[in-house]
From TrEMBL:
Protein name listed in UniProt: LacI family transcriptional regulator
Intracellular or extracellular location(s): Cell envelope
UniProt keyword annotations, A-Z: Signal
Native organism taxonomy: Bacteria, Bacillati, Bacillota, Bacilli, Bacillales
Part of the intact protein present: 92 to 399 of 399
Domain Periplasmic binding protein: 22-280
Similarity annotation: Belongs to the bacterial solute-binding protein 2 family.
């Protein structure tokens, strides 16, 4: 309601391009790079001037970028937040400057929902549930005990918290599954490999299932398993999230068993929201992206049209 509206809205006003400041949290994964690319392309297409900042997984750097957007008097600020806590102060600073905020991808756990206009992103809890359901089905014939390990993403980030909860809520209650261990691996290939290596060292042949919170970590884990002398996808069932081209390739090869899709192409949705805010329209508080699940059977069909 208190938003600055319509530099480009009035009919006799000379229109200048809308300026959007986007604080991207990092470049840790293929998903993230596809997301950044999508935002840049969509801005160009919409004729919106984009000021893009990559915070390299640092919340402090996100605050610095946002303060510079405020100084530059951008029209709208979009934030893809690295972790979900600690945003209230900076969101108040933006609010005082009268600049509308769009949260993209991950969420912020502010108590005051008026601190942002809308949140555009996926339902990570549901993604975790989908991963859990796959494991239940895949292991239906086995009597257990089935040992599960988890490669978690960034500590305190919404996708890691919610995917973990969705997965655990789906699996628990069935006592044939045993959670053997989990490690944070920051959503990167490198750490996925490192942390899988230590899980294997610690637990070895007791591991039957890996739930990886993203594809990059799963790809790293595959390398660690092969070095250890195990066959990924056979000796250890692997379920991952995102649906990048590289992961779908491994799915076709049978080294990953299931990939739950998370759609990074949020650019067009974001630009539409920016335009609507500038036109003074009211937006829904939450814009959720529809997504599916890929297995060996469906990966082949999907991969031909994959852009990332
Ligand atoms: O799954 C992961 C990335 O926030 C949904 O972040 C995003 C996640 C995505 O690093 O690959």
């Amino acid at each position: 309601p208190s938003h600055r509206v319509g530099q480009s809205g009035g009919t006799d006003m000379p229109s200048r391009p809308i300026v959007l400041g986007f604080s991207q949290l990092g470049s840790e994964s293929d998903w993230r790079n596809a997301n950044s690319q999508s935002v840049k392309e969509a801005a160009k297409e919409a004729g919106i001037t984009l000021i893009f900042d990559n915070a390299e997984q640092s919340q402090r750097k996100q605050f610095e970028a946002i303060r510079s957007f405020i100084q530059q008097k951008v029209d709208v600020i979009a934030i893809a937040p690295v972790v979900q806590s600690g945003w209230e102060g900076i969101l108040s600073e933006i609010q005082e400057a009268g600049i509308p905020v769009i949260i993209v991808d991950r969420t912020v756990d502010t108590a005051d929902a008026s601190q942002y206009v809308t949140l555009i992103g996926s339902d990570f809890y549901e993604e975790g549930q989908k991963a859990g359901k796959y494991v239940l089905d895949k292991m239906a014939a086995s009597t257990g005990p089935i040992g599960i390990v988890e490669l978690k993403g960034t500590e305190g980030s919404t996708p890691s918290i919610d995917r973990g909860r969705g997965f655990h809520d789906t699996i628990t209650g069935t006592d044939k599954f045993v959670f053997l261990g989990s490690e944070y691996a920051d959503f990167t290939h490198e750490q996925g490999k490192d942390k899988m290596r230590s899980l294997l060292y610690r637990l070895g042949g007791d591991i039957d299932v890996l739930f990886s919170h993203n594809d990059d970590m799963a790809l790293g884990a595959i390398e660690a398993m092969e070095e250890y002398g195990l066959q990924p996808g056979k000796d250890i069932v692997i379920v991952s999230v995102d649906g990048t081209r590289k992961a779908l390739e491994q799915l076709i090869k049978g080294k990953i068993n299931c990939v739950v899709e998370c759609n990074p192409l949020l650019g067009p949705n974001l630009m539409q929201a920016v335009n609507e805010i500038m036109e003074g329209r009211t937006l829904p508080k939450r814009i959720v992206t529809p997504e599916s699940v890929f297995t060996e059977v469906t990966a082949e069909r999907e991969i031909s049209s994959r852009k990332y």
